[in-house]
Amino acid sequence: MDKKDIRSLLRNNAVTVMFVVLCTLCMIFSGQSVSYVIYELFGRLSRNSFIVLALIIPIVAGMGINFAITIGAMAAQISVLWVIEWGVGGIGGFLLAMGMTLPIAALFGFLIGKLLNKMKGQEMIGGLILGYFASGLYQLLFLFIFGNLIPLNTPGLVVKGSTGVANTIDLNSGAGGGIKYALDGIWRTDFGTTLYVLCGIVAMALIVGLLLKKVEKKKAIIGVGTAAVLCGLYQIPAVADLFSMVKVPMITFIVVGILCLFNVGVMKTRLGQQFRAVGQNRTVANASGIHVDKVRLIAIVISTVLAGWGQLIFVQNMGSFQTYGAHEQVGLYAGAAILVGGASIRKATNGQAILGCILFHLLFIVAPPAAKNLFGDAAIGEYFRVFISYGVIAMALVMHAWRGVQARKEKKEQQEAAAK
Amino acid sequence: MSAEFVLEMKNITKQYGENTVLSDVSLSVRPGEIHALLGENGAGKSTLMNVLFGMPVIHTTGGFQGQVLLDGQEVHVSSPHDAMTKGIGMVHQEFMLLPGFTVTENIKLNREITHRNFFSRLMGKNLETLNMNKMSSDARKALDSVGMSIDEYTRVEGMPVGYMQFVEIAREIDKTGVKLLVFDEPTAVLTESEATQLIKVMKAIAESGIAIIFITHRLDEVAAAADSITILRDGKLAATRNAKETTIVELAELMIGRKGEAMVHTDPREVPHDEVALRVRDLHVDMAGEEVNGVSFDVYKGEILGIGGLAGQGKLGIPNGIMSLYESSGDVELFGEKLKLNNAGDALRAGIAMVSEDRKGVGLLLDQSIEDNIVFNAMQIKGEYLYKFGPMTLKNSKAIRAQAEKMIKELDIRCFGPTQHSGTLSGGNQQKVCIARALVMGPRFLFVSEPTRGIDIGAKKLVLETLVKLNREQGMTIVMVSSELQELRSISDRIAIVSEGKLVDILSPDASDADFGLAMSGIKPSEHHEKGDGAQ
Question: Nearest CA of chain A to the CA of B193: how many Å?
Fold first, then answer.
């Protein structure tokens, strides 16, 4: 790799590189123990990564970051309210909430998609404003309709003497015991077990693939080798210590894994091909007979429903949520996270989403204590991370525009070189 | 396949509102023949193809009259997709390829080969898994048939343009049941050797029984490839010829034709050639769709030079490049002084004015009054019509009004008065306001670009007469760019014809139709005649 390659690699991943540096610095100054940070990180990953992965399909379909996922989150919160009111607890309640979220979010997604199809090229700003607008309707629903026109009987959901749903919804309340940890709590295990299970599955899959001649020999050997090395490393007490605090919510991570597989799998279908075609060039897609508006609509509906489920995973982990505020930052934080991982508003992969999630939340964990140590005030770190999430999005947009200019320049140079 | 013609279009008439763009045009194509469709811009070629493909633009403007027959059966093509299923394919001038897809994925776009899986059984066909192996073997077959050795897994991004063209063709061939392929200006972006290769491929395709409609303006390629030829002119059928029984000269003549008498009469005079007003050497202009690739010419003081050529060949790029409205390079001298390019202010200050072809976009501030429009450039560039108070300036309304009234009288602008908004004027009068604005700059040299586009006949005459008057009475040197050859011939002293960004030849307005036709298709008439004579 010569100098030019390294430079373009750095340039193309400037945001990611910057975040790695920032996280490392904050990590050093925070004075937190590594095992605590890892513990926190696993918690945050389990509740946040699903919603970030929900952004991938619209990006591939050329609609940019779907900031309208806030509306999917609203659908989830409506479902949670009723599941608590009905007193269905545990995993049953969670599944019921998922089932309820599906049609509500799909309907919202359909409406969002219809609108975004009328404002092609401005989907991101459209989705953002739509989120604010929907917030108003959501407040109307929760302040005036629920609890007033449609009475709620569960104690805690309404505050006596005031109107509307209470400010905070506690997921432990309700007759059925609530849905806190409904998914996380099914099977929690320590990191070691998770690692062995994961490595075992990967190794098995590779060996089976090799026997069926679907996987190359070299690839299989590297995969199995890596798994073995990881398990070996974990045998070192110092390494194992780092993960000693972690309790892995297996089912949640399995669900996230399934979503990753879905994102990969759907791209290998006819529908996925249509997403990619529409994302690259609507005119060409249209000329080949693809129903562009319909494909975009499907992308937004899928994304909105997934975002709703993502929000369910988030709130069941948190145990309670701010009735009127929990959805507001969802789009912003998820969008910033995927960009941090190296995705652009035109291209995104599972890996980028997960990496982005790790880096973004790592900064969330270590920035406040680092600021406290450096400036004597944790609020500066708090301020810093909010500032950074907006900054990352702005930077990604600027870089997108800049790359466009750069690409045009290069193309022109190539043409001139060819002409000579 | 018993029918004699694979496609017959009978008595097609199409109107856009009052405007008849196609009248009583017929076209018949035999199976396995290459049928060339010739015509100038606006002759109706694209409208005819839009009818054939059932483009939405046809249906939303009231449809068309006439019949379309495929294999002798009357058909109604409702959409481009419908056309595809009926076996009509199109190789586009603008490539319809996705850069991020491989060759295979592009060839199979929206016609992917899939197999069923668990989810597709539940959720429908759209979730079926792609069968990449089968798709690429099909793509390989199609690529082989157009003589392309390129790997089917290559991404289209970064491929030479010529290859992209062949990928497009491979995609059309891969469609099952294709009976008719339309090639829209396929050689425009190709190098000479690629073009030769393309014609070879077209012939091979035709031999396999697929008919081809070949739209082009390159007459030599028509002669090399076509079996029969249909020529359109002004929305009417000019002629249908068998390739063996015609010559390039005849085709050129048919394509241009005489379009009525000259609109403006000018007294014949000697072409001025004493002093060079504008010397242009190796001008390149980067104007999308109107690129200029190395044009050199001289304009003499006191003459009217016409620049003609088909649309998209670069004639508009010349004035826009010299005026620095688009990025350009080359040497330009105005009355012996070097003109710096890429700074519009410099060109204006040097004394060149331009009446833009984009009257509403660049030319006029539509919601400003006539008088403000007339003095706008003079005020902004030269700082005229202003009172100055130190760093501050104030409009000199009195001087502006006087100048505007003078111009309105001189150019006979029909309006209520100098304060009327220019947006409410008719097209011809708007054009005159543009000319007035150019004149207020006190130019030594005037570019007029498509001055009669979109205005009615009476107004055209007035605009042209104004130009002649300016030239004869004030000695203004004028370069007029126009798509309408007749207009150029009626007032120009010499006419330069541009094709594919290059100057083909400078002709006298009295040169024959055939010469103009040849020049527009990029063949220098004098050379062609020499060659022709030599062969005989």
Answer: 15
| Count of other CB atoms within 10 angstroms of residue B149 | 6
Q: Which architecture does CATH list for B7-246?
A: 3-Layer(aba) Sandwich (3.40)
Helix pair A350-375, A250-267: axis angle to 10 deg: 130
Residues 331-360 of B with CB under 8 A from A: none
Count interface pairs A-B at CB distance under 8 A.
Answer: 64
Reply yes or no on domain B260-351+443-536 having CATH 3.40.50.150. Answer: no
**Residues of chain A contacting B126 with CB distance shorter than 8 Å:** 269-271, 274
pLDDT digits (tens, 9 = 90+) for A326-337: 998 898 889 989
Q: Are residues B301 and B327 in contact, defined by beta-carbon separation less than 8 angstroms?
A: no
CB B403 within 8 A of CB B469: no
Give the amino acid at B241. Answer: R
**Dist. CA B469–CA A136, nearest whole Å:** 67
Which residues, in sequence order, are CB contacts of B472 under 8 Å at separation 6+?
Answer: none
**pLDDT on residue A236:** 87
What pLDDT does residue B535 have?
39
Domain span at residue A363?
A: 35-184+284-413
pLDDT above 70 as % of chain B: 96
Contact B482, B467 (CB under 8 A): no
Q: What's the predicted TM-score (pTM) here? A: 0.79
pLDDT, residue B260, reads 55
The model's confidence at residue A416, banded by pLDDT at 50, 70 and 90, is low
Interface of A with B (CB under 8 A): 266, 268-274, 276-277, 280-281, 283-285, 287-290, 412, 418
In terms of CA atoms, which chain B residue is nearest residue A277? B98
pLDDT category of residue B533 using cuts at 50, 70 and 90: very low
In whole angstroms, what separates CA B452 from the centre of its chain? 16
Number of domains making up chain A = 1
A11 part of a folded domain: no
Interface test with B, best of A57, A213, A284 (most B CBs within 10 A): A284
Question: Mean pLDDT across the stretch A273-298?
Answer: 90
User: B99 to chain A: which residues are within 8 Å by CB?
Assistant: 280-281
| Domain regions of chain B by residue span | 7-246, 260-351+443-536, 364-442
pLDDT, tens only, B456-483: 777 788 888 888 888 888 888 999 998 8
By CA distance, what is A414's nearest residue in B?
B158
Give the residue from B98, B115, B125 with the most A CB atoms within 10 Å of its CB, the best one to mutate.
B98
Can you give the pLDDT at residue B258? 60
Residues of A in contact with B286 (CB under 8 A): 412
CATH code of A176's domain: 1.10.3470
**A198, burial (CB in 10 Å: exposed 0-12, middle 13-18, buried 19+):** middle
The amino acid occupying position A243 is F
Confidence band of A377 (pLDDT split at 50, 70, 90)? confident
Task: Evaluate whether A292 touches A285 at the Cβ level (below 8 Å).
Answer: yes
Q: What is the pLDDT of residues B257-303, one digit of tens each?
A: 765 555 677 777 777 778 888 999 999 988 877 888 889 999 999 89
- Nearest Cβ partner of B112 from A273, A281, A284? A273
Averaged pLDDT for residues B92-104 = 84
Mean pLDDT score, B391-409: 86
Classify residue A7: in a domain, yes or no: no
Residue among B104, B108, B117, B127 with most chain A CBs within 10 A, to mutate:
B127
Within an 8 Å CB–CB cutoff, is residue B128 touching chain A?
A: yes
A404-408, B141-145, B508-512: range with lowest mean pLDDT: A404-408
Cα–Cα distance for residue pair B43/B226, rounded to 1 Å: 20
- The length of chain B is 536
Q: Which candidate from A289, A412, A418 shows the least CB-CB separation from B110?
A: A289
